[in-house]
Amino acid sequence: MKCLPLVLSAILVAPFVGASADEGQLKTAEGLPSELSGKIAAALNPAGTQVVVGDEPVVTVWLVKSLAIKPDFKPSLSVKYPFAVGQLVGAIKVEKSSDYTDFRGQELKPGVYTLRYGQQPVDGNHVGTSETYDFLLAIPAKADTDPAPMKTPDAVNKLSAPATGSNHPAIYFLVPPEEGTEAAKLTHNEDFDWWVLTVVGDGKAGDAAVKVPLVIVVSGMTAG
Question: For residues 150-173, b (16+ Cβ closer than 10 Å) or e, as one string?
């Protein structure tokens, strides 16, 4: 398989080789959370990735078995990921029991959420917050039971907002990936105090099987 030039209750086993940062590590997770609907669970790969910082699990992430790729996608200055707004990308379990927030600094309580692709609105409310527009939106698992793509950004935003108890969706920033990324890893951005998880999913571009890296800020918030 080629790699696209772009820039998720489990039984834990050995850490991934190559997990980085002195106090962070990745562990494999086998099995999906019971909170997910049957249809959503059927769409996900049961092998997940858990982020541990110090001795505390932070999140566990699962990706869908096959990531839908936009035909003839080419990265732009602002959009680096080949997904459609509203498509299911995976699920996340927030393990950390306190002081955990999304990228905007909104509290996210421990629990299970689906992850759908979204883009930062181009409006006056988001000027200067990010040079790229790629995000994942977290939706409480009980509110998102069908893996079919959602048709509008408003539909995703409306289901995600209750996760934060506000009128703003719960968001995870997608860092532009490095070309050739083929393995899961964890890095710590000391400048912003971000823990950044790289996971690699399977996708299809036409008839060609591809590897699709996602680089997700799973802990830490915007400085903007």
Answer: beeeeebbebbbebbeeeebbbbb
